[in-house]
Design a protein that fits this description.
This protein is mostly helical. Helices cover 92% and strands 0% of the residues. It contains six helices and no strands. It is flat.
Amino acid sequence: MALGAMACTEQDEARMDTALDDVQQDAQVMANDLRASLHANLDRADARLDNLDERIDAMGDRAEGDLREMANDLRQERDALAARMDQMGNAAAAEWSEAQYDMREQMNELEADLTEARLRAAETKDDFVAMTQEELNELDVRIESLEQEMAQAGDAVQAEYRETLADWRAQRAELQNDYERLENATEREFNAMRNGLASAFGELGQDLAEASQDVRRALSTDSKESDA
């Protein structure tokens, strides 16, 4: 009887060790994926920042003063995030897991602000229209991705965001209408619409990114509860 109990105990300990190894391995994979994702997003932000600087330089005295300030602020946002990533370096997976939502939020804010600044820096209507179409396509990708994440998170999360998602789709449709108006707008109408549209794209993009963060938190919580 005692030998049997000891065998069971050893088997249980072995199973627990295997489960712990699996959890640690999953955490390390998550940390590596997060590092790679943040670095890729930072590279993309660098390219967009360089393009923004080139546009502002080309505008010369025609560039609005607050646009130059916005570009400088964006550089500071970018540098602060890069410094934090360097500081994390090869930190343990648990530290990356703890910091991931805050770091993604910093990246989301940077990307939203970059979207607004780039649109405001479009000097011609044709340039603005082309960039607006790119941003509309990006919004479609984000909305579809968010819906897929919500489907994984379950009924409670879908119920929480159902009306909000419908509002975002309505906002996206309004931006599509504004885009179509832009194509036939006069130069005066374009100048009147430009900054408002740039802000609207930035705000909606950030709303979608923040919702994605919330859904990821819900998925992470469900995963931890199921593992427990």
